[in-house]
Amino acid sequence: AAPVGTAVRPDSAVPGVRRLLAVASGKGGVGKSTVAANLAVALGKRGLKVGLLDADIYGPSVPTLLGLPGRAQIEGGKLLPMAAHGITALSIGMMMAQDKAVIWRGPMAASAMMQMIEQANWGVLDVLVIDLPPGTGDIQLTMAQKLKPSGAVIVSTPQDLALIDARRAIAMFGEVGVPVIGLVENMSMFVCPHCGERSDIFGHGGAEDLGAGAGVPFLGAVPLTMALRAASDAGEPGAAPEFEGIAERVSVGLGL
Ligand code: ADP
């Protein structure tokens, strides 16, 4: 097992892609997709060529987060990632109607994820960010074993309920030999827009403490804000300045 927080693998297993970065969470609803999309765009603003793959097959959020409601085209037998906000992206949501549910067993969902990597024309990328489904199931394992990502970022809220599962996710990546680049604490605090009082709705500092205990670097905290929620629904990433620092630490962690 690879120790956490160590140097990343030098090259990704996907031709043309320098680094594969998995964004994961132990639990759903902690803001993993929001972090993945904003981080990808922030990495792009640093001058890197960035792709974002939505591997959250059962709950694809990337088309909404990036404001890409259309369908992905196929050219020369390969899927063409769609461009927005300085990056390119692919999602199962770009291939089917929004009101259709994906009712697949694990292996099919894992193979859909692999198709969006291997049968797509991503071109040359510095980093391909993979927004994984929550938890530690089939898709996460297939991705870790077949694609050998350069590193993983784990998203958690400061709540104990989420941190317990974040710890499991750290352990899973350790077992399959994927270095954990660090932890992002999302919904870290709430500042009341009326009175300015700060409330730690889900607690505060839990992810930093977990990181310190597990030897995983802390990448930064993102507050719970109306602006980020509204920007996410509007498909306008970039509303939270905290992602600039997080992107800087991630690119250092990836050796980019
Ligand atoms: P996950 O991918 O972990 O299931 P999402 O990224 O879909 O989580 O986020 C869950 C919900 O919380 C979404 O409605 C999203 O817009 C909202 N959200 C996530 N992070 C924040 C934040 N920091 N501030 C405000 N809303 C947020």
TrEMBL record:
<dbReference type="GO" id="GO:0016887">
    <property type="term" value="F:ATP hydrolysis activity"/>
</dbReference>
<comment type="subunit">
    <text>Homodimer.</text>
</comment>
<comment type="function">
    <text>Binds and transfers iron-sulfur (Fe-S) clusters to target apoproteins. Can hydrolyze ATP.</text>
</comment>
<comment type="similarity">
    <text>Belongs to the Mrp/NBP35 ATP-binding proteins family.</text>
</comment>
<keyword id="KW-0411">Iron-sulfur</keyword>
<keyword id="KW-0067">ATP-binding</keyword>
<keyword id="KW-0408">Iron</keyword>
<dbReference type="GO" id="GO:0005524">
    <property type="term" value="F:ATP binding"/>
</dbReference>
<dbReference type="GO" id="GO:0046872">
    <property type="term" value="F:metal ion binding"/>
</dbReference>
<feature type="binding site">
    <location>
        <begin position="26"/>
        <end position="33"/>
    </location>
    <ligand>
        <name>ATP</name>
    </ligand>
</feature>
<keyword id="KW-0378">Hydrolase</keyword>
<keyword id="KW-0479">Metal-binding</keyword>
<keyword id="KW-0547">Nucleotide-binding</keyword>
<dbReference type="GO" id="GO:0051539">
    <property type="term" value="F:4 iron, 4 sulfur cluster binding"/>
</dbReference>
<protein>
    <recommendedName>
        <fullName>Iron-sulfur cluster carrier protein</fullName>
    </recommendedName>
</protein>
<dbReference type="GO" id="GO:0016226">
    <property type="term" value="P:iron-sulfur cluster assembly"/>
</dbReference>
<dbReference type="GO" id="GO:0140663">
    <property type="term" value="F:ATP-dependent FeS chaperone activity"/>
</dbReference>
